[in-house]
Design goal:
heterodimer, A: 15 helices, 9 strands, globular, B: alpha+beta, three-stranded antiparallel beta sheet, disordered N terminus
Chain lengths: 337, 98
């Protein structure tokens, strides 16, 4: 993917992450959205959601990634999904899987292709449950089994890789394959409740190196562009080689607040609110988003891997030091010294 | 450069012997550098540095014709190769409706 073209300022986001609800039935120890829930600013109502979808269709946003909270706990979520698809926008739903049943899967299949991403943070109950809560593995697995039984075509199992579950990546991949699902590995960042668990959950140097090698050997593993600063040359063409915040993507919180990305939903990075102005106006004129488009990690410029990561994810440095423009502390060069 | 301006600059099938359609599984939009394609089946993006030679059709809907501007000489050959490459990737298909 050409960096110069990405830097040419796209007229709209390629995808928008939309945290559609604050409500959740789990209490995960690394939840990136916990801060939004704690703020309790409420949610857009259905008419406001429909207006935002209309706006995204006008902007020609390709994909909306719905998250939460648990999206399927929002009573009108299926109507929101249907309306999104009716406007030609593709969707991906991140779910904790606990409320999946036959009737819901019937509805989702009618909207295919609809990408479903089920969160599970370990291949074994004892690993997952430390992170996502006691008994959650047993609550999540029946939904996954049902998706497999119904041969749901586009689902993945997503694991946020932490110090507690990194040793199970291979086993997790095998588990996902056994259900006909793709494996997706996501990066743990110190945002939301992750701030509190960062020191305990962040990967060790050895784990980062093992993960880098594993991803290099397994190009079929999805990462949502989480690990581009860590992965070897062999994965270079699989996705982004730079932070897409404000350039390719932005995030919408349950109350309509807009941020540069789902991992940067911090009051200091508020770009606007869709109840005050159209998303297109925020995308075009927000100083916060413009700041991310201009963001350069100067200290990384002389690195031999600069073209492969451009300084990596700015969220890590931001939440650890409250400033932007710091290099990603988990990039391959930082890890290998 | 806006999509509307580009749409006005190009005429359907004006310069090439075949006409191309954007299939149901593809979305394409106009950007300052040319076209940005999104394949719904893979969620993969394809950036195409086509300038104003190609103009995106409607975002969704039936029979979306990729509009090709008037082309001559080397530019015509380059755009023809580009269109063939996009067809190989499944991002456009030859219109066989005639």
């Amino acid at each position: 993917m050409s960096t110069s073209l990405i830097n040419s300022r796209l007229r709209a986001p390629v995808n928008v992450t939309w945290e559609i609800t604050e409500v959740c039935n789990l209490d995960c120890s690394h939840c990136l959205s916990a801060g939004l829930r704690a703020a309790g600013r409420g949610e857009l109502d259905f008419d406001q959601c429909r207006a935002l979808i209309d706006e995204m269709a006008r902007m020609q946003v390709f994909q909306v990634n719905f998250g939460g909270g648990e999206p399927f706990l929002r009573p009108d979520f299926l109507d929101i999904l249907r309306y999104t698809h009716s406007q030609g926008i593709t969707s991906c739903v991140s779910t904790n899987g606990t409320v999946l049943d036959d009737a819901l899967i019937d509805d989702l299949l009618e909207m295919a292709p609809l990408y479903l991403q089920v969160s599970l943070d370990g291949a074994r109950p004892e690993t997952n449950d430390v992170i996502r809560g006691p008994g959650t593995f047993a609550r999540i697995l029946p939904g996954i089994e049902l998706l497999a039984e119904r041969r749901y075509p586009d689902f993945s199992l997503n694991m946020v890789v932490t110090r507690l579950n990194a040793h199970e990546i291979g086993e997790f991949d095998a588990l996902a394959r056994s259900y006909g699902a793709k494996t997706r590995l996501s990066r743990f960042r110190p945002s939301g409740r992750g701030c509190n668990t960062w020191d305990d959950y962040r990967l060790t140097r050895e784990q980062l190196l093992e993960l880098s090698a594993f991803l290099g050997d397994h190009p079929e593993i999805l990462t949502g562009d989480s690990f581009f600063s860590l992965t070897p040359e062999s994965r270079r063409k699989l996705g982004l080689n730079m932070c897409g915040a404000g350039k390719m993507t932005c995030a919408v919180a349950p109350d309509g607040s807009v941020y540069p990305c789902a991992f940067l939903c911090d009051p200091g990075l508020l770009a606007g609110n869709v109840t005050d102005q159209p998303l297109s106006a925020i995308w075009d004129s927000s100083p916060v988003l413009e700041r991310f488009r201009q963001l350069e990690i100067e200290t990384c410029r002389t690195c031999d891997r600069f073209d492969m990561c451009h300084g990596g994810c700015p969220a890590i440095g931001y939440f650890l030091s409250d400033s932007l423009g710091l290099p990603d502390p988990e990039c391959l060069r930082a890890v290998t010294g | 450069m806006g999509a509307g301006a580009q749409a006005g600059a190009a005429r359907p099938g004006a310069a090439l012997p075949v006409q191309y359609l954007v299939p149901d599984w593809v979305r394409v939009r106009q950007e300052s550098f040319g076209l940005l394609f999104y394949d719904v089946r893979s969620t993969r993006l394809t950036f195409v540095r086509s300038g104003d030679s190609l103009a995106a059709p409607a975002f969704a809907g039936p029979r979306r014709v990729l509009r090709v501007g008037p082309l001559e000489g080397a530019r015509r050959a380059a755009v023809s190769r580009l269109l063939q490459d996009l067809a190989v990737k499944g991002l456009i298909v030859v219109d066989k409706s005639d």
